[in-house]
Amino acid sequence: MIGNGQAYIEDNQSWQCNRAATIKGVLGENSGILVATGGESWMAESVQPGFLACDALDVISIHAYGTEDFATSSIETYVKQAQKAGKKLIFEEWGACYFDTANNDCPKGAALSSSERSSNIKSWTAQITAAGMPWLYWQVIPNADAHGSYDYEVGLNDPVWETLKAAALDAVKATAAFDFSANLL
Q1: What's the fold here for domain 6-179?
Q2: 55 Cβ partners below 8 Å, 6+ apart?
Q3: I need a labelling partner for 61 at 20 to 30 A (CA). Which of 1, 52, 136, 163 fits?
Q4: What are the sequence ranges of the domains in the chain?
Q5: What is the pLDDT of residue 108?
Q6: What is the Cα gyration radius of the chain?
Q7: Residue 50's closest CA among 85, 75, 80?
Q8: How confident is the model at residue 152 (pLDDT cuts 50, 70, 90)?
Q9: 112 in the Ramachandran plot: left (φ > 0), alpha (ψ -120 to 50) or beta?
Q10: How far apart are CA 56 and CA 17, in angstroms?
């Protein structure tokens, strides 16, 4: 479904619910295992009314890369929708482009300085965290050269790694909009 556009997602919302129902049917209703969507390309694609209304879905996963998707006020709109529907949200995939591109759209352009990219990461993690959203960064890798595939990657030897690490440690201390504690091992 990723890459097919918002109209396609809107027209095929039942696919996620049907898959979730199949998974719940195998797991059983009392397994304690949360069933999630896989996320889409943008915030508006990731959170759909049909996903929020689906009894078999527990978590709506957000994949977002556009800079407007990182605005706290935008995220809070979706947080409220999920809370009202009794669902959880997670920023399952997001990233800061290595290149200076329109709307954070990798993979080509002029390389940002480490300080510019660190500033983007610091700003966007602060906004996501302020909305109470748990998040996972795409993608932290051990490679000496972290610039592969779409170039949202951060390497453990990359100068921006310390910024991302600090942001993650700050997020752990923040108040969350959703309680996942009953589902942690």
Answers
A1: TIM Barrel (3.20.20)
A2: 21
A3: 163
A4: 6-179
A5: 79
A6: 17
A7: 85
A8: confident
A9: beta
A10: 6
**Other Cβ atoms within 10 Å of 70 Cβ, number:** 24
CA angle 43, 3, 73 (to 5 degrees): 10
- Going by pLDDT thresholds of 50, 70 and 90, the confidence category of residue 29 is confident
Side chain identity, residue 45: E
Whole-structure pTM value: 0.90
Across 13-25, average pLDDT: 95
Which pLDDT score is estimated for 148?
Answer: 65
- 3-state SS, the chain, equals CCCCCHHHHHHCHHHHHHHHHHHHHHHCCCCCCCCECCCCCCHHHHCCHHHHHCCCCCEEEEEECCHHHHCHHHHHHHHHHHHHHCCEEEEEEECCCCEECHHHCCCCCEECCHHHHHHHHHHHHHHHHHCCCCEEECCEECCCCCCCCCCCCEECCCCCHHHHHHHHHHHHHCCCCCCCHHHCC
